[in-house]
Design a protein that fits this description.
- The complex is a heterodimer.
- Chain A has helices spanning 8-25, 39-68, 78-112, 121-143, 168-196, 209-241, 254-288, 295-308, 324-336, 338-354, 361-384, 386-392, 396-426, 432-458, 475-505, 547-555, 593-609, 613-632, 661-690, 704-729, 735-757, 767-798, 808-842; strands at residues 569-574, 581-587, 643-646, 649-651.
- By secondary structure, chain A is mostly helical.
- Chain A has a domain at 694-842: Up-down Bundle (Four Helix Bundle (Hemerythrin (Met), subunit A)), CATH 1.20.120.
- A two-stranded antiparallel sheet of chain A has the order 1-2. In chain A, strands 3-4 form a two-stranded antiparallel sheet.
- In chain A, β1 (569-574) and β2 form a beta hairpin.
- In chain A, α18 (613-632) packs parallel to α22 (767-798).
- Chain A is globular, with a radius of gyration of 28 Å.
- Chain B is mostly helical.
- Chain B has one domain.
- Chain B is built from 3 helices and no strands.
- The termini of chain B are far apart.
- Classes of the chains: A mainly alpha, B mainly alpha.
- The A-B interface holds A 195, 203-205, 296-297, 299-300, 303-304, 306-308, 310-311, 323-326, 328-329, 332-333, 336, 340, 540, 575-578, 580, 659, 685, 689-690, 844-845 and B 1, 3, 5-8, 10-11, 14-15, 18-19, 21-22, 25, 28-30, 32-34, 36-39, 78-79, 81-83, 85-86, 89-90, 93-94, 97, 100-102, 104-106, 108-112.
């Protein structure tokens, strides 16, 4: 060890602090591990789980290559092949790629930003359990031979009841939606934590670039997932209850599914790429021995990329018959999205060119990334051009492009990051004699597998065929592709062996082995449960962080919160832009609640899958009840006022400030919710204008009186929520106001449900009635969730968690009911406008 | 520290430019869809599209000029200067993206 020798007294101080904090933050042994909520534990579990799914999906990929290695292959029958390739894509995307980048974010973000944990540890754990259970449902379906078989993007009508009558498609719709709950909950958690929980002094302009990447990615997830969640719900409702959103014979349109899917699907590519670009932007400066070139330009590029990636979803639909003018919008958008990507590529190259680069295993993978991602980007610009896409659409050229951009952009930076941060996880170094050949096997195997697919695609080989005749000229290319797949698999197997050898025999490394300048290295390795014994402070003059020196100081408790108090898991909340300390955040300790809530959610999903609808409803209510129960244990039940946090600074606890993490979390939730609502509005208008037989539909006649009553009751509930807030703030009682809000919401639910029962045409007969029912159901559901808020308010008022200085709960309820009122007015207004819209259609030429 | 903290609401400005870009996309795609569905004449549809695009370009140009002219607020220190630079960068990028993405297609046949 080359570190300076500590003074005995200082060492004793550090040891005492370590023991005190470990007792507070630690997770118990044995079964108590199931109660873990710590980000390090959950992050590692997510990594391991995602790699298990990666292995399963990889094996499925190998099976497809075995089938296609030679013409007239009879290794698999067509039905099995359909399930195998569908599950390969679905697992790679939903069970490996997204969770894996999230696991990096979960494990690393608090450490890189200099805080002890995420803002909502129980939500982190719940997200993990949802992911595990959802993934398990899909895997069990595969073993049982009833896996999804309609391709990973589940196009209707192939995935509709008519052509997929079994449970295969339901498994995908419910299982993937279940996993998406996990992704969304983690995304909200990440946004709040990055904005509110950084090291004091870490203003946004000094935030490590990794933080910017993860922040923007999480925001993208909040907006990208809801359209697919809505699409999955609508398709499942069509399959289960016969509401024809996608059935053209009854006023639906299969293309609506494609729009909703790709509104998620295209940003998803960047959701996978951006965190990996964050990994590259962190690693490259370390190995180039100089700071990253173009920090500000990269921030602008990330923001541009995030938005542009949403505006080009139609480039997956160039062949569906959209007019040329509209296609050109998306074609040009798809081309210019390369510009912000190129800004990052050139920034990395400039960093390397202006630095003194050194080679090590992570840099090998960085090299691999450059080669593969640039190739994938170039073929991306090719397929962005409409005439070329018409030729290459649904051929293996697209499969090759997708694997170069998604697999290349993910796998190589992931492995670079994996080797870079493994010493942090394990305290040991990689074994070079295995790591280097592993890289070359993966690199050569990858290119051999997927480059050949460009050629088979250009020769006209369609994707998803289960065999071919042998006279098309594809034989040797397919054989090479299959050989390459096995070479790549051997490479990945060597990576796994390297990891096992490293864990057992790897050389122990000192802290900060790469000479990095980010905070995750300013802690003991492997990191303890509390991450930092005291929270680092970035003084105004400190430009470059020296993790080695800082670590010793932090271990002695010389940063913020370098002590234990009341057995609380304490960390700091900061001002969003400047990073100045603002509040003391007391985090919840390990609990089984996330596990039980995840199990209840899984029960609801499984009951839906097996069509036990009443049971599913009960399980959903239990899930909601567990959320309310979790809320009862949050916060502090008395006023503390400002408390010392070190460095002569005192701040109030998060329960007594306006900008508490929960406030920002609810705003994030409402952004996701409003995206789903907007997607529903888009769906309604899309069907109105594009579905084939709306003009012939019977014009509905919704009751204006009932609609006005519904709007009025929602307004009363929102007003009563304000009344309850004012009453408590003035030291009075709020129970009357809350009761009024409850009654108003019950009335709103009754009216909305009654209106659904009276929808004309019947929701099963025509998509017009189905969309009206969906809009009204949205209102009823939100009023129902509002009831849960109010029940929680009642309980927490009684338990003393709500007081004049602690009205956060009531503010949250008010915000929810305001949102419910606004969306309720829009949804009911649209239902009222439907007759006029149908009449207008009749007048068109 | 004599600097004032940059109010968190200023962060929304980072998204402002590309929100206008999104608005242009939604508006143009919707007008085009409605125009084709209801059989608008080529001239009037093209005029509507051009006017919509022009309105968005003017809005973006005005936002850029307004923000650039006011300069970074020195009270907000380096964080304010950084955000000011980043906001201007996103506004320029959004303006260029709007012009390139939506301008040339308006010359194409409208509903074929």
């Amino acid at each position: 060890m080359s570190e300076p020798i500590e003074q005995p007294s200082q060492g004793a101080t550090a040891l005492r602090l370590h023991r005190e904090l470990a007792a507070i933050w630690g997770t118990g042994p044995g079964l108590q591990r199931l109660a873990a909520v710590n980000h390090s534990i959950i992050g590692k579990r997510m990594m391991i789980t995602s790699f298990v799914f990666f292995a399963i999906a990889g094996v499925l990929g190998m099976l497809t290559r075995v089938q296609l290695a030679t013409p007239k292959g009879d290794f698999m029958d067509p039905e099995t092949y359909n399930q195998v390739f569908t599950m390969h894509g679905s697992m790679m995307l939903f069970l490996f790629a997204i969770p894996m980048v999230e696991s990096f974010a979960v494990y690393l973000t608090p450490k890189i930003l200099g805080t002890r944990d995420f803002a909502f540890p129980r939500l982190t754990a719940y997200g993990y359990w949802c992911y595990l259970f959802g993934g398990t449902i899909l895997t069990v379906a595969l073993i049982a031979g009833v896996a999804p078989n309609s391709g990973w993007f589940m196009y209707t009508p192939l995935s509709s009841n008519l052509y997929t009558p079994g449970v295969n498609a339901d498994v995908w719709l419910l299982g993937v939606t279940f996993v998406e709950i996990s992704a969304l909950s983690l995304a909200m958690e990440i946004v709040v934590s990055i904005l509110k929980m950084r090291a004091p002094g870490m203003s946004l302009d000094r935030m490590p670039i990794f933080g910017w990447y993860i922040l923007v990615t999480a925001m993208m997830m909040i907006v990208a997932f809801p359209p697919l969640i809505l699409g999955s719900i609508l398709l499942e409702v069509e399959r289960a209850f016969g509401l024809p959103f996608f059935d053209p014979t009854r006023g639906g349109d299969p293309l609506l599914w494609q729009h909703l899917f790709w509104l998620f699907g295209h940003p998803d590519v960047y959701i996978i790429f951006l965190p990996m670009a964050g990994v590259l932007s962190t690693i490259i400066p370390v190995f180039a021995n100089r700071p990253l070139v173009g920090y500000r330009a990269i921030v602008v590029a990330i923001v541009a990329l995030a938005f542009l990636s949403f505006g080009i979803w139609v480039h997956h639909m160039f062949t569906v018959g959209i007019p040329h003018l509209a296609l050109a919008f998306f074609s040009l958008g798809s081309a210019i999205v390369a510009v912000p990507t190129a800004v990052q590529i050139f920034a990395w190259l400039a960093t390397l060119a202006h630095g003194r680069p050194r080679w090590d295993v992570p840099m090998l993978y960085v090299f691999g990334f450059f080669f593969i991602f640039v190739m994938g980007g170039l073929t991306g610009v090719m397929v962005a051009m409409v005439p070329f896409d018409w030729q290459a659409h649904d051929t293996y050229f697209v499969v090759a492009h997708m694997h170069y951009v998604v697999a290349g952009a993910l796998a190589f930076p992931m492995l670079a990051g994996f080797y870079y941060w493994l010493p942090l996880l394990t305290g040991r170094a990689a074994v070079h004699r295995l790591a280097v050949p592993a890289f070359w096997l993966v690199f050569v195997g990858f290119n051999l597998t997927f480059f050949m697919m460009h050629l088979t695609g250009l020769l006209g080989m369609p994707r998803r065929i289960y065999t071919y005749q042998g006279d098309e000229g594809w034989n040797w290319l397919n054989l090479l592709s299959s050989v390459g797949g096995f070479v790549m698999t051997i490479g990945f197997a060597l990576v796994v062996i390297d990891l096992i050898v490293q864990l057992r025999y790897g050389r122990r490394v000192c802290r900060n082995p790469w000479g990095s300048a980010t905070l995750e290295w300013a802690m003991p390795i492997p990191p303890p449960s509390y991450a930092f014994a005291s929270i680092p402070s970035l003084g105004p003059g400190s430009v470059q962080i020296a993790p080695g020196d800082l670590a010793l100081s932090l271990a002695r408790g010389e940063g913020y919160l370098g002590f234990a108090r009341n057995g609380w898991q304490e960390t700091l909340g900061v001002h969003m832009t400047t990073g100045e300390p603002e509040q003391l955040i007391v985090l919840p300790q390990p609990t089984y609640l996330p596990l039980f809530t995840g199990l209840a959610t899984a029960a609801a999903v499984l009951a839906l899958l097996f069509k036990f609808y009443l049971l599913s409803l009960v399980a959903a209510l239990v899930t909601a009840g567990l959320f309310v129960l979790a809320a009862q244990r949050a916060g502090l039940a008395c006023d503390y006022g400002p408390m010392p946090v070190g460095h002569r600074v005192s701040v109030p606890p998060h329960t007594e400030v306006a900008e508490a993490p929960a406030w920002l979390a609810l705003i994030s939730t409402l952004v996701a919710d409003s995206t789903l609502f907007t997607s529903l509005l888009f769906g309604t208008f899309y069907l109105w204008i594009a579905a084939p037989n709306w003009p012939s539909a019977i014009a509905p006649e919704p009751s204006r009186m009932l609609a006005l009553v519904a709007m009025a009751t929602l307004a009363i509930a929102a007003a009563a929520a304000r009344g309850s807030m004012r009453a408590v703030a003035a030291g009075g009682k709020a129970s009357g106001w809350i009761s009024l809000a409850v009654l108003a919401l019950l009335a709103a639910i009754a009216v909305a449900v009654g209106s659904i029962a009276g929808v004309v045409p019947h929701p099963r007969e025509h998509a017009l009635g189905a969309t009206a029912a969906a809009l009204l159901f949205y209102v009823a559901l939100h009023a129902g969730i509002g009831l849960l808020f109010l029940v929680s308010n009642f309980l927490r008022l009684g338990a003393g968690f709500i007081a004049p200085r602690r009205i956060l709960d009531l503010r949250l309820t008010r915000l929810w009911l305001d949102y419910t009122f606004v969306t309720g007015v829009i949804a009911i207004g649209l239902v009222l406008a439907l007759p006029a819209l149908v009449t207008v259609l009749g007048a068109r030429p | 520290m004599s600097e004032r903290p940059v109010p968190p609401r200023h962060l929304w400005w980072l998204a402002a430019g590309f929100t206008v870009w999104c608005s242009a996309l939604v508006a143009l795609y919707a007008i085009h869809g409605i125009g084709c569905a209801f059989g608008w004449s080529t001239g009037s549809l093209r005029l509507w599209l051009a006017a919509t695009l022009l309105a968005h370009l003017i809005l973006l140009g005005w936002m850029w000029r307004d923000i650039a002219r006011s300069g970074p607020n020195t009270d907000f220190g380096p964080t304010g200067a950084f955000l000011h630079w980043a906001v201007i960068g996103t506004l320029i990028a959004a303006l260029v993206a709007t012009a390139i993405t939506f301008g040339p297609p308006l010359l194409l046949a409208t509903c074929i």
